[in-house]
Amino acid sequence: MTNGLVIRRAGVGDARNIVEAHHAAIREKAAAHYPAEVINAWAPEEISDARVAKLEDHIAAEEFLTLVAELGGEIIGFGQVNASKNVLGAVYVRKNPVGGVGERILTELIAHAKAQGCRFLAMDSSTNAEAFYRRNGFRTTGYGKHHISSAKIDMDCVHMMLKME
User: Fold this and answer.
1) What's the domain count of the chain?
2) pTM of this prediction?
């Protein structure tokens, strides 16, 4: 805990607040980097019950370790890693008065992956987050498209990898 910031494992009951933080982070930080149709597909104005239920199932299944960052009882960020598949899902943090929240989440996710025997993590980053991941040891391995299946639209992404040997 630093500056009132708490990083903890997510529970099923956190799903709606995680989706809200996810959408806010995208709208606050990625909107200048993607066309409106991509932002609207990636983070729709209205959060559907189906989207929340999908995340609840995801957390309950524990396929990914999902961590949340709380400040004053509010979820301001989250991150996910699937150590068994060597995949970092993502780290999203909405605007907040505390610095370094994304790095704190990422550090804990990487530590978890290492403890599970991962020798590398791969991920697809948004173009606006590439510099964040590079500052934290990831290297760019290529550029491509990520398909947002719910809206049948593609968005630019950056393929990245972190070697942990």
Assistant:
1) 1
2) 0.93
